[in-house]
Amino acid sequence: LQLSFDITEVAAGKEKVTIRFHQIEASHYFWMIDDIKLTEPNSHDLVMVRAWWDYALPPYTGEGVDTDIDWTGGYTSIPIDQLQDFVGFRAAVKNFGLATQTEAALNVKIYQEGNTTALFDQTGTSMSLAPGIQDTVALDATFTIPGEGTYMVSSTVVSENADEDMSNNGFEYKFEVTPNTYSRSYEPPYDSRVMT
Which of these, 13, 51, 170, 188, is most buried using a 10 Å CB contact count? Predict the structure, then answer.
């Protein structure tokens, strides 16, 4: 397991910084931290923290919204007779770099299995993100799924600045349109999340 933490807010400009690791309560029976490395971040590095693909209904944004569960979509199989449109796309994005990221935007591509050309390829409204800031980028567009088959939605955060670490700039969502199956779980070998 590899974790990265942005300590700019508490460490920037300080002459001396002390780092302490503290285990709280009996969370596990051993403690193991290995290979600590302090590095200066890249100048240009956007990180996509989470992505949402709003299927059929826009997101709930009222009082008490919980962004971990209040989103529509998530089906891995959809019956063709119940097929509806995607009504929007969103992503939580953080500027993990040292420089302000200008023209940061969400690009969404939708592919049907067997085709290398995207059926849908659009980019949302752009924004600037200062270092350490997290915000939501969105693409307010709809997409009608053409029929039965397997599809993949690819969401990527893009910017006018060349990102120095593209490995954390996107998420993918795979689903299929079937004759008669609704499902939120993938068939083995479960290449993504499994939901009841």
Answer: 51
- Contact (CB, 8 A) for 80 and 179: yes
Q: What share of the chain is helix, strand, coil (3-state, %, to 5)?
A: 5, 35, 60
Q: What is the pLDDT of residues 94-116, one digit of tens each?
A: 999 999 999 999 999 999 999 99
pTM of the model as a whole: 0.79
What do you get for the CA distance between the two ends of the chain, in Å?
26
Beta-ladder partners of 177 = 78, 149
Beta strand pairing call for 86-95 and 46-55? antiparallel
Surface-to-core class of residue 191, CB atoms within 10 Å of its CB (0-12 exposed, 13-18 middle, 19+ buried):
exposed
**Which tokens hold the place of 137?**
């980028």
Backbone angles phi, psi at 182, to 5 degrees: -105, 130
Beta strands at 127-129 and 101-112: parallel, antiparallel or unpaired = antiparallel
The H or E element spanning position 121 is strand 120-123
Q: Are the CB atoms for 92 and 49 separated by under 8 Å? A: yes
99 in Cβ contact with 90 (< 8 Å):
no
Report how far residue 185's alpha carbon sits from residue 77's, in angstroms, rounded to the nearest whole number.
8
List, as one string, the DSSP characters of 93-112: EEE-SSSPEEEEEEEEEEEE
